[in-house]
Automatic annotation (TrEMBL):
It catalyses: a 2-demethylmenaquinol + S-adenosyl-L-methionine = a menaquinol + S-adenosyl-L-homocysteine + H(+). This is Demethylmenaquinone methyltransferase. The gene is menG. GO terms for biological process: methylation. S-adenosyl-L-methionine binds at T66, D84, D109, A110, S126. Its EC number is 2.1.1.163. InterPro entries: SAM-dependent_MTases_sf (IPR029063), UbiE/COQ5_MeTrFase (IPR004033), UbiE/COQ5_MeTrFase_CS (IPR023576). Methyltransferase required for the conversion of demethylmenaquinol (DMKH2) to menaquinol (MKH2). Coiled coil: none annotated.
Length: 248
């Protein structure tokens, strides 16, 4: 007998969110490609280019799911840690990608990361910050584990800037996507939560303000696919290089 579908809600209880992603892990990447009309691959390319991975770099890929984005980063020769809150996602990622020597998988909660301070050159998260119940606390944790002068890259659903396109996008999300999700997903109710979470998520400027408030500098973003998605970038201040600072 199959388990009852696990559906998260906007309360974003960690147990329910994790359980929901456990249930969709096996078909997650395929479903995302179908529902995004193939745009997920273009968004992943944009995020990888923003991270600019290269040998010698340590990268933390949060909300990594089954590791699709992590593999793209690891192909550069960088050392990549793929972290996700869902044990089902981590297990699926290890099953698929265990042969990549510079890619490791770890279960991790974004609001309490199990890594030392100043560990990574870059922290990135794609389509995962929206599912964290305390996203501002998570942004502070990402800052903590990033080395001074290191970078943050966030790829997340956002708000189209054109009213006409926003109407078309809303029609697709509310009318078309639920029908397609029932046909291709093992847990169509999970994608009802997806719609709700996108509608309630702050827009580009608001998220940029959250990032600044967490202590990041040089915060900037650019829209992808007319603002359906926004790519945010920021830098951790390097206080060691501030003029007039006394060492001791």
């Amino acid at each position: 007998m199959s388990a009852e579908p696990n559906r998260a809600d906007l309360g974003k209880d960690p147990g329910r969110v994790s359980g929901m992603f456990d249930q969709v892990a096996a078909g997650y990447d395929r479903t995302n490609t179908v529902l995004s009309l193939g745009n997920d691959k273009l968004w992943r390319i944009a995020a990888t280019r923003a991270v600019a991975p290269r040998p010698g770099r340590r990268i933390l890929d949060l909300a990594a799911g089954t590791g699709a984005s992590s593999v793209s980063l690891a192909r550069s020769g960088a050392e990549v840690v793929a972290a996700d809150f869902s044990p089902g996602m981590i297990a699926e990622g290890r099953r698929r990608h265990s042969g990549i020597p510079n890619l490791t998988f770890e279960q991790a909660d974004a609001v309490a990361l199990p890594f030392d301070d100043d560990t990574f050159d870059t922290v990135t998260i794609s389509f995962g910050l929206r599912n964290v119940n305390e996203p501002q606390r998570a942004l502070a944790e990402m800052l903590r584990v990033t080395r001074p002068g290191g970078h943050l890259v966030i790829c997340e659903f956002s708000h189209p800037q054109s009213a006409a396109f926003a109407g078309l996008y809303g029609f697709y999300n509310n009318r078309i996507l639920p029908v397609v999700a029932k046909a291709v997903s093992t847990n169509a109710e999970a994608y009802e939560y997806l719609n709700e979470s996108i509608r309630e998520w702050p827009d580009q400027r608001a998220l940029a303000a959250w990032i600044r408030a967490a202590g990041w500098t040089d915060v900037a973003y650019r829209n992808l696919t007319f603002g359906i998605v926004a790519l945010h970038r920021a830098t951790k201040p390097d206080l060691r290089n501030q003029p007039g600072r006394l060492e001791g």
